[in-house]
Amino acid sequence: MNRFRLRSLTSTAVVVVIVVAVAMALIVFAGADPLVGLRGLVEGVSSSPYRVGELLVGAVPVAIVALTLVPALRAGVFSVGAEGQVVIGAIAATAATFAVRGVLGDAAPAPLYWLTGAAAGAAGGALFALLPAWLAARWNVNVILSTLLLNYVAAGALGWSLRTWLASPENTATPQSDKLPAAAALPDLIPGTRAHVGVLLVVVAVVVFEFWRRSPHATRVRIFAERPALARRLGATRTRTIVTTMLVSGTGAGVVGWMQVAGVNDRLLASVSGGVGFSGLAVALLGGLLPVGIAAAAVFFSALAVGAVGMQSATGTVPSSIADVIKGVLLLGVAVVAATRPGLVAPAHAAPAPAPDDGALGADETAAATAASGEPLLADASAQPRTAAEGAR
């Protein structure tokens, strides 16, 4: 086990232990037996197929957002814009679904709805992620700031859409779109629950990112976060790395937006994101940026919310809102863990400048470069970009 994985697993274990300790303290403070409360938490997750389905419904979008954030986070591109990208993806997927129905009517087959909705959602999320990526690559705009502010733009676009061109013709208490065609709904994975086949997409994503993690491209991305000058020699330019990694995260968030509409709500709601963007970021860090760890962290995160209802029923005194408090402690712990990894949370444009002797690579750097490129790298000064403009390319 390498040092990075050991440190990630240790940090995650410490955060989980602290969260459990805080949960037990809150249960005691509420005047209940901690063991009864924890048993109620477990039963609230596993007592019936419906509760298991709710566990999966909560874990799937968070896991996909977290998994597709991994390349950006490994590159030091700390994006917090998944929330807005989910919203834009949901808007695009809803509009595309209604467009298919408008053209083909009731004759449109279900697979066409699924492919169109997924493609539109992915494109919407990717394009919305491309804007902050371009701002960062072109003008060094802080990625954290730009993606955070664009979340408000997405929320405004959603509110306007639900009041105008996507508004339901029915009089409703809350803004929402018309119901999607029945054929556009994702098939159920567990009958009688809201769990849909999107669970299988999480399995596929875990396998894909597990292979990617062992690829030369992943090595170049990691080197970019730590040694930008060395990464340029391997072909991982700053612009290319920022744009490609953020496009991956935007695509994943957009697909989640489609799944929330077609698989859970059957229509576009103002609450379509449900905080999965921010939760996905926390889960990615809690899982140590490892695909299997992220999947486990997503299930754990969802279990807190789903099991809180069972805890309330078992104790009679502990409110279900305790899940929000525990999540807050969990997010705080994740923030502390992230702060201890400066290479992870530093914006890509703030990467340290190369040392004066960067023209010569050490043995470890040469080995890393060779592993990433697949061929020996000549460590001479002539490999450096001749001008700043050439390096930016």
Automatic annotation (TrEMBL):
Its main location: membrane. Pfam families: BPD_transp_2. It is a multi-pass membrane protein. The keyword Transmembrane helix applies. Residues 355-379 have a biased composition (Low complexity). It is found in: Cell membrane. Keywords: Cell membrane, Membrane, Transmembrane, Transmembrane helix. The chain crosses the membrane at residues 12-32, 52-73, 85-104, 110-131, 143-162, 195-212, 242-261, 281-306. The keyword Transmembrane helix applies. This is ABC-type uncharacterized transport system permease subunit.
